[in-house]
Each structure stands twice: as structure tokens, then as C-alpha cells.
Here is the input.
Amino acid sequence: MAIYLTHESKVLVQGMTGGEGMKHTRRMLAAGTDVVGGVNPRKAGRTVDFDGRAVPVFGTVAEGIAATGADVTVVFVPPAFAKSAVLEAADAGIGLAVVITEGIPVHDAVAFTSYARHRGTRIIGPNCPGLITPGQSDAGIIPADITKPGRIGLVSKSGTLTYQLMYELRDIGFSTCVGIGGDPVVGTSHIDCLAAFQEDPDTELVVLIGEIGGDAEERAAAYIRGHVTKPVVGYIAGFTAPEGRTMGHAGAIVSGSAGTARAKQEALEAAGVRVGSTPTETARLVLELLEAGG
Here is the structure.
């Protein structure tokens, strides 16, 4: 089992013929992802060879869905075109849109996440590494060779910390790892993933990675208290951030004590979440809980 992405997922890549799109499409295919097409209206009708696999290019997402049955799109288009790309995908009825692009204006993200929600399309991102169900499918830029299938679910604001925890816990492995992105507006929240992992029979424990800024982790803590029965281990990036300085992701905005790493840690711990002080300690807490649970 997994959440959002499985071996049955059929993936389109918007922007496949660009530099980043080409590189990561090749990597996704190598990871076993069923990439069924790319989308570029200027190159429609062509095929692109990826190490012996010919992937067709469609003029629109709707054409790609009609021809292949695609239910996922990965968006690698430049920031100025991201909004129209996501709106097109939502209008075509895609179930999941993974928006890798960074630097998207906030008002564009507000517009396309709201519109996609109305149309029934789940957005992962923007400005995210995507998601991976190890051994089944990889949609985005997460390396597929640093872990294996297993029983841990992972939801993270940080791409780098996603990779680190995947590597630290590689001997146990993961059901699905979701990088939700660290921008002020994202389409899928910690809470969305917690709810999905709670329902996934093969996820035994959830790792939640947050960072300074906003109140997403505090809201996740409240949700955990009322709805999550599986053990959750947390890590908050930003304990060493200098006071008064803008750090990292666009969503890392701290106002007074609100949004600080300490406030987030306290909220999570009050909900029964064990919070590590470093990624390595976080991994150790996961191992302890899994061993205690048999």
C-alpha cells in the first residue's frame, strides 16, 4: 500500500522536453515510474527516446490523458507558466499534480491551488521535491536509490531533510515519502498526509518534518491529538536560525514566539509526538518506537 502514488500511477510530465524535465524524466523512468507522455504544445507529435523507451509528446494534458489514461502530472515548467500549466491539468481532470517549480508568485499559487481543489485535483507543492513510493513510483526529483520499501510514512516541508531521513532510515524503508514544499501556500498539508497515512494499513509510523515559520506544525499537532492513533516522530528545522533574519523557504516567517522551532516542538510534544533535536536523533527515536512496538 501507499498514499497518492503507486505502481499503477500513469504519469505525464509538463515541461518534459526542457533541461530539467529531460533529466528527471530519465531518472523517474529508471526508478520504475510509468511515465506515459510529456506535454509541450510546440513539440506535439514527437517522441523522446529515454534509453530505449520512446515517450510521446502531447500538445495538451487533455490529449495526454485521452491517449494514455494518465492520472498524475509532474510540472517542470518555468514559474511564469506554472499557473496556466496547473489550471490546464485541473481542467483536464488530472487526479494529482506535482508542482516542482520554485519561484512561483504567491498570488499564482493561491489561484491554482484553490482552483485545483475545486476541480478535484490534488496539488503537491509548489516548490517541492515531489513524492516517492519506493519500489513502485517516483514523481518529482527525490532520489530513488537512497531507501527501500518499508513501513514508515514521511511528510516534510524540506527536500534536503526528506532525503536525509530517507537515508538514515533506509534499513527499515518507507511506504511513501511526500515533500509538500515550504512556500507560504501549498496544495497538500501535513494534515492531509497524516490523514492518508492513518488510513494506510502498511504505514506503521509517521515522520513529520517541519520548519520555522507559520503555524502548519501547530495545526498538525492539534490534528494528531484528535485523529492519529499511529506513532508520530517529528523534527523541526530552524532551532539555530538567527533571530530577526529571513531564512530559507518563503514560508519561514517568524513573528514573536509564533512560528519558532521551540513553539512547534512544544505543540507537537503536547500531542504525544516525540521530537528529535537533530535528524540523526529523529531517526533513532523512530527505531526505538518501532522496536518497542515489535
